[in-house]
Amino acid sequence: MELTDYWKILRAHWISLIVITLVGGLLGFGWAFLQPKVYTADASGLVSAGVSSDLGSAMAGENYAKSRVKSYLDLAKSRSVAEDVIQSLGLDADPDDLVGQIEVANPLDTATLRVSASAGSPEAARDLAEAWVGAVGEQVAEIENANADPALGQQSIVAFRSLDAAQMPEAPSSPNTKLAVAIGLIVGLALAVGYALLRNIFDRRIHSIAEVERETGQAVVGTIPLHSGFDQDTRMITSTGGNDQGQKSNEEYAVAEALRELRTNLQFMNIDNPPRSIVITSALPGEGKSTITANLANTIAAMGRRVVVIDGDLRRPMVAKTFGLLPGVGLTDVLIGNAQLSDVLQPWGNTGKLYVLGAGKIPPNPSELLGSNALHDVIEELSHHAIVLIDAPPLLPVTDAAILTARTDGALIVSRARRTTYDALKAALNNLERVKGHALGIILNGVPSKGAKADGYGYRYRAYYGRTEKQEQAPVVQQDDADEFAALIAGTSAPADTTAAPRPAAPAQPAAPAQPASPAPAATATRQAPAAPPTPTAARPAADAPPAAGPGQGSAPAADEGPRRRRRAQTR
């Protein structure tokens, strides 16, 4: 990983870093607070070797004193000195314990002994330091006098006298609260950084687009941000019109823009042959596939493209509830021949381009129905006239979505950011590969759009545009589109689809006088819708128009088409 990756990890866990660091500092402070206070007093004594007016003798005496003071270091830490101090101060203490309270040092190139005494109170520390220096002086005098021979009139030339008296300490020397808190903060910060790095290593949830593409080899074709404006019952975006000026809030704009970006990515996924039938599934339940399916279909319809949403989840159907439709006859009724496809398609919304095919009755054999030729024919027929989005069950619990993907142009796999694991996502992709299904890409749902966690998803810089973005204008609804589409599905007419792009409604022209029908050769017969209203503008071919009939492929009159289609359905 690069340095920026580590920085992103730390930013993503900034709360943990702060909390653990502060806990370390508090623990350091608590430790210092609970420790007994210790006060330290310093006193010093000087070793001298007589007095002489002769310069040479004086220098020799000073050097002799420096050499002797080194031998007094061990004497100053001896048990005998401690016993003298206990006797002089009247203490009730063990000599060895008292020695542990004393530190003796000889500053470099001096004849001085510095005594540091520690005690539980300032007075006790001062008295102990003073008494200790005095006891060392008495011990030195005894030793030096013992070395002199009184018979020869010799006297000791070495003397030890007090140099600096001990002062009463104003503050305890230990514990050092500031040092304890500083050490606690440093240790806490180190533990926090280690925690963040270890959690990143063992956390297998999705955290960024780059990680998803690196782990799975699949492209992320859409990222849907977190948004609280979804209706709790239908999961459709409730605020589609924005404020009084047609503007949307930042969150609403982010969702709308993400859906438009996903729609655009699908259009440019294959310029020559864009996908017409798409399964939208997920690895596990609760990823938001049904919500994305419904809102994506609404976004495609807002562009003027005809789109059909099929509820392919025959175990727990959700499409009818998402669109606010009453459950009834649907896909299963068409597959078993109890209903015609044109009879169960339900138009939805104000665009006139969105149709819903509910699941129908829940069957005992969902996998067999989803793998049947009848469903393949339904998908193929609908994809000739519209973009088909199929809301399928999750890939890991059941095989339904994989079966559906094998019969369509591919699948979009919805994964929830910071919840779906890479292991689950890879297992879902493997299920598609086993049935030769094609994964079109991955949609990340529930992506954070602000804060440090949004860095990996590209949403940090999008909020700027949210306050001025206006609602995407839906095409003018053509009143005859639902009838026209139903006629296409029923096989009673074959006009070209004019929904490739929005077009304004033109004033209706007066209908031409009816001309008597004249017989035409079967090879050039064209299919006419009965009692069709006058068309405002000439029909023009579009990307999702059905292929025109070639020579020798003319249609029979409308009156004969219905029975023939019913017979074809029964044959299937």
UniProtKB/TrEMBL annotation:
Catalytic activity: L-tyrosyl-[protein] + ATP = O-phospho-L-tyrosyl-[protein] + ADP + H(+)
Residue ranges, compositional bias (Low complexity): 495-530, 537-547
Every Polysaccharide chain length determinant N-terminal domain range: 2-89
Residue stretches in coiled coil: none
One Pfam assignment: Wzz
Renumbered residue ranges of the record's region Disordered: 495-572
Statement: the UniProt record of this protein carries the keyword Nucleotide-binding: yes
Claim: ATP-binding is one of the keywords in the record: yes
InterPro entries the UniProt entry points to: Bact_polysacc_biosynth/exp, LPS_length_determ_N, P-loop_NTPase, Wzc-like_C, YlxH/NBP35
SUPFAM superfamilies: P-loop containing nucleoside triphosphate hydrolases
Keyword terms, alphabetized: ATP-binding, Cell membrane, Kinase, Membrane, Nucleotide-binding, Transferase, Transmembrane, Transmembrane helix, Tyrosine-protein kinase
Subcellular location: Cell membrane
EC numbers on record: 2.7.10.2
Membrane protein topology class: Multi-pass membrane protein
GO cellular component, one term: plasma membrane
Transmembrane segments: 12-34, 179-198
Sample GO molecular function, one term: ATP binding
Family: Belongs to the CpsD/CapB family. Belongs to the CpsC/CapA family.
Record's protein name: non-specific protein-tyrosine kinase
Organism per entry: Leucobacter chromiisoli
Lineage: Bacteria, Bacillati, Actinomycetota, Actinomycetes, Micrococcales
